[in-house]
Write a structure and sequence with these properties.
By secondary structure, this protein is α/β, with parallel strands linked by helices. Helix content is about 45%, strand content about 10%. The strands form 2 sheets. A 4-stranded antiparallel sheet has the order 2-3-1-4. It has a 4-stranded parallel sheet with strand order 7-6-5-8, with helices on one face.
Length: about 350
């Protein structure tokens, strides 16, 4: 059962986050930051809440297909909070295999109760989720549904047109899977990090694309519990992000480089590790919370970078000297949940 923190649980904050984000057209990360990361939840519950939010967005089309089969009320007539809770409940029942059915139903309904929803609505959500739980063995497996369901129609159609039906379906299918935990070994050779992990019984596999990447296919615990985390020996970073930093090279000694949308500093730290001695790196970030975490991550990774508090327009107004390389990892829309 999810531990409560005051009047909040992982599921209540996930539902509140999705409901607040719905219809705004803004990146979901800002809502995750304020409604989950700053909620007072334990680290374990924050991780669960984020997983529920991102999993719901990743499989939203399939979840809605399922809910339409069990709800007599059209989804577009439901309030955002109701629909968010139903999607979260269906995700736990049909996608997250480690969540028992009883917990998926009961904890989701309890989350709505914490959010002060009326009894009739609790009964409505409870009834739909219990029906799904009773009949899910006779339903098509989510893995067998058309993967295009979980993508914007315009995007899937563009892939079909440009790449062909088979290739487009393969892309959609892979996008719908949760990526393996991937580390970027920043301050030691990845084989040394692999040995450090192996000494604790943790299996790792070298990544096929990032030269310093290690995949941890079996790890289910907290990232902070991994050996080497406290010392800043690695950071969690997908191979694609690692490659994006490497593509800014070849780097020149004494060069000047800019990370124009630094965020929490994942690519900033990766760039700092790649730059030759004597190079200068500047990171630009306007959001106060991310700016604070950026500073903490730079310190933990022992990465050297000058940080500018503001957006790119404000930074440009300072008339900086020209840069030898500029990285722009622009904030993503909801499509950022696809791989």
């Amino acid at each position: 059962m999810t531990k409560q923190s005051g009047t909040r649980t992982a599921r209540s904050q996930a539902a509140a986050c999705l409901a607040a984000w719905t219809g705004t057209g803004k990146p979901v990360q800002g809502f995750i930051d304020t409604l989950i990361h700053d909620s007072g939840l334990s680290q374990e519950d924050r991780q669960l809440a984020v997983m529920l939010v991102m999993g719901t967005l990743r499989r939203q089309g399939s979840l809605d297909w399922l809910l339409c089969r069990f709800s007599s009320t059209s989804l577009h007539k439901m309030k955002p909070l109701t629909l968010a809770a139903l999607r979260i409940g269906a995700l736990q029942l049909c996608v997250l295999e480690r969540v028992p059915d009883a917990a998926a139903v009961n904890e989701t309904v309890a989350a709505l109760k914490l959010l002060r929803q009326p009894p009739w609505l609790l009964g409505f959500v409870n009834g739909i989720l219990r029906n799904i739980a009773r009949q899910k063995d006779s339903l098509p497996r989510f893995a067998d549904l058309a993967p295009e369901l979980d993508h914007p129609a315009w995007l899937a159609e563009r892939w079909r047109r440009n790449l062909g039906e088979e290739r487009a379906r393969d892309i959609c299918r892979i996008n719908g899977t949760e990526p393996q935990l991937c580390l970027n070994s920043l301050r030691m050779d990845r084989q040394e990090l692999a040995s450090l992990l192996a000494a604790q019984g943790i299996r790792s596999i070298p990544g096929a694309y990032g030269p310093q990447s290690l995949l941890l296919p079996d790890w289910r615990g907290s990232v902070t519990a991994l050996p080497g985390f406290a010392e800043g020996l690695f950071q969690v970073q997908d191979q694609a992000a690692q490659l994006a930093c490497a593509l800014l090279g070849p780097f020149k000694a004494g060069g000047r480089y800019l990370d124009g949308c630094a965020g929490l500093g994942g690519k900033t730290c990766a760039l700092a590790a790649l730059l030759p001695e004597g190079s200068a790196l500047t990171a630009v970030e306007p959001d106060e919370r991310r700016l604070r975490l950026l500073g903490e991550n730079l310190q933990q990774q022992q990465a050297r970078a000058s940080v500018f508090s503001g957006d790119l327009q404000a930074f440009a107004a300072t008339a900086p000297q020209p840069f030898d390389g500029v990285l722009i990892d622009a904030p993503c829309s909801g499509t950022g949940v696809i791989r």
